[in-house]
Amino acid sequence: KQEVTQIPAALSVPEGENLVLNCSFTDSAIYNLQWFRQDPGKGLTSLLLIQSSQREQTSGRLNASLDKSSGRSTLYIAASQPGDSATYLCAATGTASKLTFGTGTRLQVTL
Amino acid sequence: DTAVSQTPKYLVTQMGNDKSIKCEQNLGHDTMYWYKQDSKKFLKIMFSYNNKELIINETVPNRFSPKSPDKAHLNLHINSLELGDSAVYFCASSQGRGVNYGYTFGSGTRLTVV
Prior knowledge:
The complex is a heterodimer of chains A (111) and B (114). With 111 residues, chain A is mostly beta strands. Chain A has strands at residues 4-7, 10-14, 19-25, 32-38, 44-51, 56-59, 62-67, 72-77, 86-93, 99-101, 105-110. In chain A, the strands form two sheets. In chain A, strands 2, 4, 5, 9, 10 and 11 form a six-stranded mixed sheet that branches. Chain A has a five-stranded antiparallel sheet with strand order 1-3-8-7-6, with no helix packed on it. In chain A, strand 7 and strand 8 form a beta hairpin. Chain B is mainly beta. Chain B contains no helices and eleven strands. Chain B has strands at residues 4-7, 10-13, 19-25, 31-37, 43-50, 53-57, 64-70, 73-78, 87-94, 103-105, 109-113. In chain B, the strands form two sheets. In chain B, strands 2, 4, 5, 6, 9, 10 and 11 form a seven-stranded mixed sheet that branches. Chain B is globular and about 40 Å long. The chains are: A mainly beta (111), B mainly beta (114). The interface between A and B is medium-sized, with 24 and 29 residues.
């Protein structure tokens, strides 16, 4: 059974800092790993999708890496802004198209 | 707009009632899902349909019954609502098993059972 864990659970950084969010998964038999953003009371917005054959994906200030063999993914956010404040979720797509979510990292970027 | 849309956005109801949540996607995807986000914000899959066929049915009470009239719609009907059913329910869709393009989520339905 796939288990996905995210560290840290919460993070507060001043504006402008670079930061890394961590995601680990127990079953390396995944099709892909997806990072989402969830704002309070809102739905999920897809940020980046990394296929199992890929090592990383980039979109603007975001960079996500994937190391299947060690069961880890990281989301790097460069030059953080207050608008980046949200909960970040990673999720692994496994067999039967089941998406297993991590526990989330709540990010607060302060002025 | 191309999207996954859910209705209603908020639902407050009494224990014992029966209610439905509707979901529609206009992305042309062939797989749809229902996820439940509990009070601790943990998201867990409930059901998945591919071309109107049930492919995932997690350990969910049989008071919950999904219905897929066509591949663009996946509704969730809940009988005899209980306090513990209070949560945010998210609908999602993907093309195939979400391998190539991932998932698209709706904005959620916040269900409160009183």
